[in-house]
């Protein structure tokens, strides 16, 4: 139904290679997230799958069928764009019905499917408005509605939440996840936000400069980042990376320890330092600790009620089993 | 998203416009250039041989040349001064809250839509006529002798007429530019204690500088070519013979095509100097 | 945030702005008023303002004596024709540059603009000569072509800036939704481009209607549009203010009305998109 296979796919614009040879398999029904810093080629990859760009070499197979000569519309994929790309001159109803109209469905069937999608997305009351009269979240829903009605083999999302404010973003994140649970359709979701990747994905693909750095479930990536890049990218706040003598003690060039795997105390510990800025989130508090002799700053997570102040000297102990070790090439030492 | 097919289709769509404009530019310009090196008098024997740069020399050494340059500079400069200064003031005024803003705007813009021959003749006859013009009535009402506008104050008259036509253009563009000014910037300046006048000098005027430059350049290009306003009023007499008008007279009235063509080439060069500046500004805008 | 302005200040602004507005509009108003007067009232000192015997006589005389409607018809044909012809050429050109840009697009746009800067008087005689050779002098088709050519750069530019504002993602969305090139143009691009096309048409009609270099120099009796007709009043005989006013009013009225509709687009069109 929605298996997508990329085999030795490359993409260059002129002399610039955006995607060096790349292999990837996305299983049917999987929620896959492409994540990476801006310019890592994740959007290009999505557009290659969509057919909006032609591959320079290699092959993309959708449900086993090579797609090289299949135009975007015939690939059975639906895409939700960052800017939503709604048709400003059409009502919400017409926007959602547009792909059905293009497919030549009769009016009754169009109406039925639009009503159904609108009900799912809470858009029923807005069907006769134009996109210009809707809020950002509502526009987003219309864009999703337009994708749903096609009953595609897979959904492609291109940073769909980046134009929404923080509160809406969390809400839409849940809605999209629920949608996936209900439809069980393959979804490919591009984002630069690792929180979105962690919370939504069945499988995360971490990209850098067109290369796949690691593929795995959110917890696999969290527990066993394959290299320093993934270690630094996945998890919030970032993993503390420590080099030098302390790392050598563990037979590694670099060691990493996540803020949530360091315990603190005012009396004793393995490491010590002075509290700089503390960020109180209520449930948690993050301390940025300086003068540790390990790195410029070590971030530690503590309970929300822990009350160290700026300038306090504290002691920290990392959980030994949670120390990640990396060699001189930045690769994980098993 | 451009495939090979769409690129060649695009070239095909662009071709007619490019070919037509290329022809429109190259063919007549080449002919003018050729004529400018000839002694060519269509009514007195036609082509009378090649003369090298003689026409160019004769055009600039003729007694009519420098006065025409002077007239051009005074008219263009005068109109620019009036339209830009009043345009800024008017734009600032129209930006203020008031009743009937839309209507006032329409009143101010209206002169721009009046065809040049109409505005020339209406001003010449109904306002500036020394016997029956409205202005002479006004002068007499105050016991003064009416001014014989188009002969005694010919330059001023032409400048007034042309300024009346172009003030709306300057106002409209500057108003558009003022409205794009971020009001937070002005509020910040107010918080910083800048009084009204210095807010104008240090914030509004710099913000407008690009729009002002554009107004000046575009108007200069159009003003260098004004024709109908002079054609229907003074016919180039009383010192109002501009470069454009002089060339027109050489070519069509005295049918000295060689001489007129040399003048035409001068005009092309002059206009291109301003066009270069304008195009640099517009070009920069394209990159954004 | 706009803050409340004192009533006093607002009244003052209103007063000054209206005075200036009416002053600038006055020549037009006066022309319209005079067109309804008798010739004697038209030159009366002190002037008569509103209380005179309103008459349509001047309009009748202008039409009968100089066959006004013929000039009007010429203006309509020339302005309308050059606009339609220009749009047929400009739309594809602007379209291709906006949606399939190449690295020469910018140069082509600027070059087109530079042709607009060419002083007409510099090419007057060659055009005159070509027109004689081709039998185009004093024909509507000849003038239509010239006006189309001089305004073509503005049309291409204006359309280009409008087309540029249509986001590429929408076209991609349409493609994903199954629209072929035909459907894309028919259902998505055209409806989104229509406001821009309409403004361009409007501005171009205004520019062509008021053009007064080529229309004066390339026409005589047959193809002369209103600009040339009005110019014939520059060597008058006898009392003619009221008739001049009537002819002028008829010549400017349609464009005043069109112009008021197109104020905003005017800025964009005349500054080649540099000020919006």
Secondary-structure element order of chain B, as H and E?
HEEHHHHHHHHHHHH
Q: What CATH architecture label of the largest domain in chain B applies?
A: Orthogonal Bundle
| Total beta strand runs of chain A | 18
Look at the helices and sheets of chain B and give the structural class.
mainly alpha
Instruction: Report the CATH C-level class of the largest domain in chain B.
Output: Mainly Alpha
Enumerate how many helices of chain A there are, as a single number: 9
Shape of chain A: globular
Helix content class of chain A = 25-40%
CATH superfamily of the largest domain in chain B: MetI-like
Mean pLDDT of chain B: 85
Q: Provide the number of structural domains of chain B.
A: 2
Count of runs of 4 or more consecutive helical residues of chain B: 13
Which CATH architecture of the largest domain in chain A is right? 3-Layer(aba) Sandwich
What's the N-to-C terminus distance of chain B? 20 Å
- Listing every helix as H and every strand as E from the N terminus to the C terminus, the arrangement of chain A reads EEEHEEEHHHEHEHEEHHEHEEEEEEE
Give me the oligomer status: heterotrimer
* Count of discrete structural domains of chain A: 2
Helix percentage of chain B: over 70%
């Amino acid at each position: 139904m929605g298996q997508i296979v990329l085999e030795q796919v490359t993409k260059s614009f002129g002399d610039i290679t955006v995607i060096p040879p790349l292999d990837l398999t996305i299983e049917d029904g999987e929620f896959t997230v492409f994540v990476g810093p801006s310019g890592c080629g994740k959007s290009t990859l999505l557009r290659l799958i969509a057919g909006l760009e032609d591959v320079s070499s290699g092959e993309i197979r959708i449900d086993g069928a090579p797609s090289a000569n299949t135009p975007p519309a015939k690939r059975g994929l639906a895409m939700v764009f960052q800017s939503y790309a709604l048709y400003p001159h059409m009502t919400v109803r017409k926007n959602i019905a547009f792909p059905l109209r293009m497919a030549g469905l009769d009016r009754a069937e169009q109406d039925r499917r639009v009503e159904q999608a609108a009900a799912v997305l809470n858009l029923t009351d807005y069907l006769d408005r134009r996109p210009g009269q809707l809020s950002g979240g509502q526009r987003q829903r219309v864009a999703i509605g337009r994708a749903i009605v096609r009953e595609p083999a897979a959904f492609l999302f291109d940073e769909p939440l980046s134009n929404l404010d923080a509160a809406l973003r969390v809400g839409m994140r849940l809605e999209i996840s629920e949608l996936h649970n209900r439809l069980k359709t393959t979804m490919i979701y591009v984002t630069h936000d690792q929180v979105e990747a962690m919370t939504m994905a069945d499988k995360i693909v971490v990209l850098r400069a067109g290369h796949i750095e690691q593929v795995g479930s959110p917890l696999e990536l969290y527990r066993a980042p394959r290299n320093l890049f993934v270690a630094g990218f996945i998890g919030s706040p970032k993993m503390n990376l420590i080099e030098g003598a302390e790392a050598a003690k563990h037979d590694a060039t670099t060691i990493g320890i996540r803020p949530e795997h360091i315990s603190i105390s005012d009396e004793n510990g393995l490491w010590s330092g002075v509290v700089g800025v503390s960020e109180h989130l209520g449930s948690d508090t993050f301390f940025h600790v300086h003068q540790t002799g390990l790195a410029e700053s070590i971030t530690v997570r503590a309970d929300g009620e822990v009350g160290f102040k700026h300038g306090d000297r504290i002691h920290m102990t990392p959980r030994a089993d949670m120390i990640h070790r990396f060699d001189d090439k930045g690769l994980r030492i098993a | 998203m451009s495939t090979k097919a769409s690129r060649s289709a695009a070239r095909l769509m662009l071709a007619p416009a490019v070919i037509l404009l290329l022809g429109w530019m190259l063919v007549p310009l080449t002919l003018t250039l050729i004529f400018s090196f000839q002694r060519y008098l269509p009514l007195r024997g036609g082509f009378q041989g090649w003369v090298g740069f003689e026409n160019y020399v004769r055009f600039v050494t003729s007694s009519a040349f420098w006065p025409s340059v002077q007239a051009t500079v005074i008219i263009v400069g005068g109109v620019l001064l009036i339209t830009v200064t009043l345009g800024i003031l008017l734009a600032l005024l129209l930006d203020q809250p008031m009743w009937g803003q839309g209507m006032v705007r329409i009143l101010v813009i209206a002169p721009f839509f009046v065809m040049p021959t109409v505005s020339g003749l209406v001003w010449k006859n109904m306002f500036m006529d020394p016997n029956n013009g409205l202005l002479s009535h006004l002068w007499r009402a105050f016991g003064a002798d009416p001014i014989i506008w188009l002969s005694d104050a010919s330059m001023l008259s032409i400048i007034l007429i042309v300024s009346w036509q172009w003030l709306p253009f300057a106002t409209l563009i500057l108003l558009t530019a003022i409205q794009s000014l971020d009001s937070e910037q002005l509020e910040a300046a107010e918080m910083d204690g800048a009084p009204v006048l210095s807010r104008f000098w240090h914030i509004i005027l710099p913000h407008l500088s690009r729009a002002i430059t554009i107004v000046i350049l575009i108007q200069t290009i159009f003003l260098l070519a004004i024709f109908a306003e002079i054609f229907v009023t003074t016919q180039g007499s009383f010192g109002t013979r501009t470069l454009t008008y002089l060339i027109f007279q050489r070519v069509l009235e005295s049918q000295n095509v060689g001489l007129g063509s040399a003048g035409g080439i001068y005009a092309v060069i002059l206009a291109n100097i301003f066009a270069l500046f304008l195009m640099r500004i517009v070009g920069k805008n394209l990159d954004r | 945030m706009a803050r409340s302005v004192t009533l006093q200040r607002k009244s003052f602004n209103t007063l000054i702005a209206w005075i200036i507005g009416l002053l600038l509009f006055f020549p037009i108003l006066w022309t319209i008023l005079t067109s309804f007067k008798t010739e004697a009232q038209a030159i009366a000192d002190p002037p008569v303002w509103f209380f005179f015997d309103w008459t349509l006589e001047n309009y009748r005389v202008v039409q009968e004596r100089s066959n006004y409607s013929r000039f009007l018809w010429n203006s309509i044909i020339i302005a309308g024709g050059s606009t339609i012809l220009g749009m047929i050429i400009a739309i594809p050109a602007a379209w291709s540059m906006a949606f399939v840009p190449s690295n020469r697009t910018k140069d082509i746009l600027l070059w087109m603009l530079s042709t607009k800067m060419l002083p007409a008087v510099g090419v007057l005689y060659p055009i005159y000569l070509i027109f004689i050779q081709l039998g185009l002098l004093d024909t509507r088709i000849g003038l239509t072509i010239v006006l189309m050519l001089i305004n073509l750069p503005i049309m291409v530019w204006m359309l280009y800036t409008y087309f540029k504002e249509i986001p590429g993602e929408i076209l991609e969305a349409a493609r994903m939704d199954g629209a072929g090139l035909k459907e894309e143009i028919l259902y998505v691009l055209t409806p989104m481009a229509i406001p821009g096309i309409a403004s361009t048409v409007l501005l171009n009609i205004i520019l062509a209607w008021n053009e007064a270099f080529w229309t004066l120099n390339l026409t005589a009796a047959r193809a002369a549009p209103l600009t040339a007709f009005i110019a014939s009043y520059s060597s008058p005989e006898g009392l003619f203010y009221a008739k001049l006013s009537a002819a002028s009013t008829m010549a400017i009225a349609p464009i005043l009305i069109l112009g008021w509709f197109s104020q905003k687009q005017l800025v964009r069109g005349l500054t080649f998109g540099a000020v919006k």
